[in-house]
Amino acid sequence: MGRRIKKLKKQRLHSEGNDTLIYSMLVLIAIGVILWRSFDTKIPFWCFVAIFGTVYGIVLNFFRCPIRFLDIDTDEYDINKVVVAPADGKVVVVEEVDEDEYFHDRRLMVSIFMSLFNVHANWFPVCGKVVSVHHQDGNFHKAWLPKASEENEHADVMIETANGVRILCRQIAGAVARRIVTYAKEGEDCEIDDHLGFIKFGSRVDVYLPLGTDVLVKMGQSTTGDQTIIAKLK
Q1: So which residues are the catalytic ones?
Q2: What is the 3-state secondary structure (H, E, C) of 195-212?
Q3: pLDDT of 30-62, one tens digit each?
Q4: Is pTM beyond 0.85 here?
Q5: Which of 3, 9, 49, 155 is the most buried (most CB within 10 A)?
Q6: In whole angstroms, what is the distance from residue 182 CA to residue 155 CA?
Q7: Strand 121-123 relative to strand 195-199: parallel, antiparallel, unpaired?
Q8: How many CB atoms lie within 10 A of CB 47?
Q9: 156: which strand partners?
Q10: Distance between CA 219 and CA 197 in Å, rounded?
Q11: Is residue 13 within 8 Å of 65, Cβ to Cβ?
Q12: pLDDT, tens only, 140-168
């Protein structure tokens, strides 16, 4: 049986977090020192170190950037028809919707919500060519609300597969997220395993698929970006 070659997985910190990590460390150290010197306390200094170290660890967790490679049985899956999860998180929507901005027809939408504790890097859901990239300013509703998909700040990446199927991947800012980064460039080839972008501090990613697509995930299911196969294109 054929298999797509599995490569070494790596873990690193995302460059998008460099400034945040440096400044947050300096702020936490300053706050800790001020509190320690300003109050008459018998709390050991290591307690302050543990508390502020934990807070910094949570911030550090936001900017994990795994290097992943999809390992699939090529006898069972056609790589040009596979749709993978673009993000770590939980499936919050699997339904037919009217998509009137690009397709002007009915589409299957699969939405993945990223909590503050998930990896915030995003991956391309399919292999193909980037047709268009568009950023839209908007509101910052809670990301799991239905209206967030259209009203919140978002970035749309349209991808056309080798079979001529167009897939829309939408990065959506949430109540906490304040910056969407998109690496996709119009006209460039893209592959599963490549990073599509990054959303700071949690949000949501929607994938719009043609009707008739075989969806392989269900509501509430956890996903791993670039690892969980969420659908198979017809």
Answers
A1: 203
A2: EEEEECCCEEEEEEECCC
A3: 766 666 666 666 666 667 667 766 776 666 666
A4: no
A5: 155
A6: 7
A7: antiparallel
A8: 11
A9: 134, 170
A10: 24
A11: yes
A12: 666 556 666 677 788 999 999 999 999 99
